[in-house]
Amino acid sequence: MRINHWNDEDNVIHFPVNPFEIAKSLGIDVHRVHLDDSLAGFIVREEHGGPVEIYVNKSDSPVRQRFTVAHELGHFAQREGDKEPMGFVDERAELASAGADPHEVWANNFAAELLMPAAIAKKWWAKGSSVDELRRKFNVSTPAMNYRLANLGLLK
Asked: Could you say which of 4, 35, 73, 129 would form a disulfide bridge with 57 (CB–CB 3.0 to 4.6 Å)?
């Protein structure tokens, strides 16, 4: 699945990427709801060929909600063409953050690349942008930006 919402019709890149609009363009409804504090969100399709819905924790900060939607879009993209029922839950549990589940690792990497593309992050970092400047440009949290830069080998 090719999800490219960085370029407009004139091939101009715009940041920050809006994962809510991407979901909408894919026919996925996003619902902001109250969830248990241990849950960031989830994606579900209850029946074969049925609608796909993403639920995000309304109590989370806007930047966390953005990352959760991007993460759930990763689960959707990973199952490209699959019309079967599905359900993935984004927990804040130790196991989820430890990177032990390959589906969760893939969805996290997808979300990071969607919101903070490596090529752009590297370019802006090389031009002297600070972590805070990049965080604002990509509209992500400071921990997410630090983690991304570290994974790209730009920050120790």
From this structure: 35
Residue 128, Cβ density class (10 Å: 0-12 exposed, 13-18 middle, ≥19 buried)? exposed
CATH code given to domain 19-115 = 1.10.10
Q: What's the burial of 125, exposed, middle or buried (CB within 10 Å: 0-12/13-18/19+)?
A: middle
Predicted confidence (pLDDT) per residue in 51-61, tens digit: 899 999 999 99
Q: pLDDT of 92-151, one tens digit each?
A: 554 445 567 788 899 999 999 999 999 999 999 999 999 999 999 999 999 999 999 999
Q: Rounded to an integer, what distance in angstroms lies between the CA atom of residue 115 and that of residue 121?
A: 10
Quote the distance between the C-alpha of residue 60 and its chain's center.
14
Mean pLDDT of 31-40: 93
Query: Which residue type does 60 have?
Result: D
- CB-based contacts of 121, cutoff 8 Å, min separation 6: 134, 138, 148, 149, 152, 154
Alpha helices in 2-141 (DSSP H): 19-25, 62-78, 94-98, 102-115, 118-126, 131-138
Nearest C-alpha neighbor of 67 from the set 136, 106, 19, 102: 19
